[in-house]
Amino acid sequence: MLFVGDDWAEDHHDIEVQDEGGRRLARARLAEGIGGLARLHELIAEHLTDDDVDAETGFVAQSVVIGIETDRGTWVSALVAAGYQVFALNPVQVARYRERHGASGAKSDRGDAHVLAEIVRLDRAHHRPMAGDSPEVEGLKLVARSHQAFIWDRTRHFQRLRSALREYFPAALEAFPDLMVPEALELLERAPDPARAARLSRSKITAALIRAHRRDPEPRAEAIQAVLRAPALRQDPAIEAAYAVIVASAVRLIASLNNQIAELQAVVAEGFGRHPDAEIVTSQPGLGPVLGARVLAEFGDDHGRYAGAKARKNYAGTSPITRASGTRRVVLARYARNRHLADAAHQWAFCALTASPGARAYYDTLRARGTEHHAALRQLGNRLVGILHGCLKTRTTYREDTAWPHLNADAA
After folding, report:
1. Where do the Transposase IS110-like N-terminal domain residues begin and end (predicted)?
2. Which pLDDT does position 411 carry in this prediction?
3. Is residue 59 pLDDT above 70, yes or no?
4. For a tag on the chain, would you pick the N or C end, based on fewer CB atoms within 10 A?
């Protein structure tokens, strides 16, 4: 077998090729792109033996193991497509391995390529090779992550908007308890400071409420107008003008993000609906088209990727870790995890509380023992991930009586 360390940068890759004994066979700096990848194939082919070559198909790519610190990009996709065993290694773990080769703290691209080759040669059993997920689920992951990132961006802009209004226009927070609703964004863009807001006519406020499909627009408009016209402490006009620019910009950003989020959500739901695992995933309590798409995309659809339910739980970050030393033993939440999947699992657990009597009973039992809310949701999420693993393994949809047999037995 050959072991390749690939230390990647934006425009080049430092490569080291080793044999099974750790002898360095080749070292090179390759340009990003087709030319560099072709040279990598040549370097590997130069050091393959006759036993590695098949008369019909050429060399056996599975005899080549590559370690690299990323799982994305056209270069990595090409390595996987070529049939190599590719290990996407965590940069934090690689940094710890680097310390074995020197305590001085020195670092170089060539040195990192050597460390990566050493890891896949000596310690690959403790790492997970890249899964053979379908292109469809990889595309779904990209769109689902963008959808989630836009939601996180919207939340940050919303927090900035709320903070700015609190500084110079607190009446707006009273008039619009939910700043994310369409009528609040429309009216704040039109009147982002107290003076202009006080001049808003009731008909304009009513029209905004009607466009947002609110009930009883007339009484609501009257209440909003009364709040906006009530006497209040004011900032200096120059300061108010500066804040008004900031608020108007934030409102336009949030409105634009709302439109993009809605469009991405439709794409996510459509792509998820076409996947063969969609029925099993959406049968789980608390998972709809969008959250289910996030869960499926992050787990992937390579059914041989996880050795068991525990491996899937570890990848989701729902299973706890134990730190023991002498007589001291502490169980902690797992924070080194896929944060996209961990966030989805947390929301999944929360939604399952109203969708599954068994999940609700399990959560209530944990709370009765003194477990705090988020810790109880993590434990519930851990159980739900295990249930999903069983359903995917057996190709069956969720059943409440099978998922929570002991709770159903107690109820009987």
Report:
1. 4-170
2. 53
3. no
4. C
Annotate 32-70 with DSSP letters as a single string.
Answer: SSHHHHHHHHHHHHHT--GGGEETTTEE-GGGEEEEES-
User: Looking at domain 2-130, does it have CATH number 3.30.420.140?
Assistant: yes
Q: Is 3 helix (H, G, I), strand (E, B) or coil?
A: strand
- DSSP string over 274-308: TSTTHHHHHTSTT--HHHHHHHHHHH-S-TTS-SS
Confidence label for 124 from pLDDT (cuts 50, 70 and 90):
confident
Number of residues that make up the chain = 412
Q: Look at residues 303, 299, 302, 304 and name the one whose alpha carbon lies nearest to residue 132.
A: 302
Q: What is the mean pLDDT of residues 45-53?
A: 69
Contact 69, 7 (CB under 8 A): yes
Q: Is the pLDDT reported for residue 101 higher than 70?
A: no
pLDDT higher than 80, residue 340: yes
Q: How far is CA 176 from each of CA 153, 208, 209, rounded to the nearest angstrom?
A: 21, 13, 12
Q: Is 160 exposed, middle or buried (0-12, 13-18, 19+ CB in 10 A)?
A: middle
Whether the model clears a pTM of 0.90, i.e. scores above it, the answer is no
